[in-house]
């Protein structure tokens, strides 16, 4: 199925491509739950787009700087990712390209 064949499908809040049935997807809390966003607004994303958001910014940065779809689309790494992923079919999925953001992660 091509992107043009999916006019009634929800759109990804990041890349704005249709989210086709069976395509990995998830809800993204615009303010991370651990930063006060529990119960706050969420947006539907392709899973690949959601993975890239969390690979691009820390939860503190997401809460403070990148807490709307419009802001996320202006993030320098996400701008490049969106340009790249928009050339793929709406049901495209792969591992998150590129390295995760720098910094140490705490053990869970």
Top keywords for this entry?
4 helices; HNH endonuclease; 2 strands; alpha+beta; 108 residues; single chain
Order of strands in the sheet with the most strands? 1-2
Alpha-beta classification: alpha+beta
Please provide the count of β strands: 2
Strand content: 5-15%
Please give the largest β-sheet: 2 strands, antiparallel
Measured between the Cα atoms of the first and last residue, the distance is 40 Å
Radius of gyration: 14 Å
Q: What value does the average pLDDT take?
A: 87
Q: Please write the string of helix (H) and strand (E) elements.
A: EEHHHH
Which blocks of ≥5 consecutive residues have pLDDT under 50?
Answer: 103-108
Classify the helix fraction into a percent range: 25-40%
Task: Give the overall shape, derived from the CA principal axes.
Answer: globular
Tally of DSSP helical segments:
4
- Please, how many domains? 1
Please, could you describe this protein's structure?
This is HNH endonuclease. With 108 residues, the protein is α+β, with helices and mostly antiparallel strands. It is globular. It has one domain (3-38, 45-85). The protein has helices at 47-56, 59-64, 69-74, 76-85; strands at 25-29, 42-46. Residues 103-108 have low confidence and may be disordered. α1 (47-56) packs antiparallel against α4 (76-85).
